[in-house]
Amino acid sequence: MPLERITKIEIVEDKAGAWFWHAKASNGRLIATSGEPFASKSGAREAAERIQASIAAAPIVDDAAEAGRRMVNDLINAGRRARTR
Question: What ranges do the domains of the chain cover?
Fold first, then answer.
């Protein structure tokens, strides 16, 4: 199967009023989602913009344990940055 390219990031609201971002391919297939809900549309959009800006620089790590450690560290650092705003 050929690699699908992300062609757009949609900001969507669910029935409960929570907001998410969805990255989609040109054929409409869902490639990635925020997973976590955002209380506001602007919060989901800001997160989508951060993902869009940083994804090209993201390293590819094939060691699952190392990937897990990096993900945890990234989440910790993101929380620290959010608290300093």
Answer: 6-60
The CATH number of 6-60 is which of 1.10.287.110, 3.30.160.160, 3.40.91.80, 3.30.390.50? 3.30.160.160
Predicted TM-score (pTM) of the model is 0.63
- State pLDDT tens for residues 57-83: 777 767 767 777 777 778 777 766 666
The candidate with the shortest Cα–Cα distance to 49, out of 41, 61, 59, is 41
Distance CA 24, CA 7 (A): 6
C-alpha–C-alpha distance, residues 56 and 53, integer Å? 7
Record the tokens describing residue 71, joined without a space. 């993900």
